[in-house]
Design brief:
Length: 295
């Protein structure tokens, strides 16, 4: 059974209801060891493409990870990027904006972390928090001190429609300048989140990953599901697509993500730089000098 990218991609114009998307892996992909072995093999290919991407120095790749608390973002970064040259990969996590970040527009801090040419960058949460957590808790927008927002009543559907459009334009500009963007939603069930929360509490070494605020946010589960669905509908494009990945079985979700990342790099088709005639002549001369060099 092969993985088909199309079955996970949100097509431009799709209407999304996350209740219609499974969170469970197919039976053929419920063996962790086999999945991890396949991921390991794909990572070798990703590393090779990253090496060429870095040498080419013309393109870059941004990978966005979004998901409800305990979806598996951190572990997926480790699983897929362990084995890829760390010189060419950066990971950035975005939490509550700082006072300095609130002095700028909401996309400013994300623009600062966009990948340089030749790089792969991962956003662990991203600019989409501004239409996800802020959609569920619109009062957070008041911290941005926008001149046309007088009260929470001004943070309406029209406000978020502008944000979706601004985000699409932001990503389109990056795409037009050589940055491919792929966006993953790690889709888990409410029951699976409960299990993972319990494990974090039972395992002392993972207590630090659990916060009482996580449980408070769990009460807004349905609101978040709607906010995610709307964000996918409004911002998934052919150039910068969203992928909804089943993640109750982490190893399967990571395998699908690794496959999509690898296929994206393959389609970017990076090339080693050409060496001009003058440089080739210099290389041949250096080669001969080295062979004839005496101790």
């Amino acid at each position: 059974m092969e993985i088909t990218i199309d079955e996970f991609q949100v097509k431009e114009g799709d209407t999304i209801n996350l209740k219609n998307y499974t969170t469970i892996a197919p039976k053929n992909f419920q063996k962790n060891k086999e999945n991890k072995k396949k991921v390991s093999n794909i990572v070798k290919q990703i590393d090779n493409y990253q090496n060429i991407l870095n040498a080419e120095n013309k393109q870059s790749l941004l990978i966005i990870l979004q998901g409800i608390d305990a979806a598996g973002k951190d572990s997926s970064i480790r699983a897929i990027m362990t084995g890829v040259n760390p010189q060419g990969v950066n990971v950035f996590s975005f939490k509550t904006p700082s006072s300095i970040e609130y002095e700028h527009d909401y996309l400013w801090r994300h623009a600062l972390k966009m990948p340089e040419r030749g790089q792969i960058v991962i956003f662990n949460r991203s600019h989409y928090e501004n239409v996800l957590v802020c959609k569920v808790h619109p009062e957070f927008i008041l911290n941005e001190k926008l001149p046309y927002i007088k009260s929470i009543k001004d943070i309406n559907d029209e406000f978020f429609e502008r944000r979706y459009e601004e985000i699409k334009n932001f990503e389109k500009r990056m795409y037009n300048n050589g940055t491919r963007i792929i966006k993953f939603f790690l889709n888990i069930s409410k029951e699976e989140q409960k299990k993972r929360f319990i494990k974090r509490i039972e395992n002392k070494e993972k207590n630090w990953k659990f916060s009482s605020s996580d449980l408070k946010e769990r009460k807004f589960w349905d609101d978040y599901q709607k906010a995610f669905a709307l964000a996918f509908e409004k911002t998934s494009t052919k150039e910068c697509p969203w992928f909804i990945i089943p993640f109750d079985y982490k190893s399967y979700g990571q395998l699908v993500m690794a496959h999509i990342i690898n296929e994206t790099l393959k389609n970017m088709n990076p090339k080693f730089p050409d060496v001009n005639k003058q440089e080739k002549h210099a290389l041949n001369s250096a080669y001969k000098d080295l062979l004839n060099e005496k101790d």
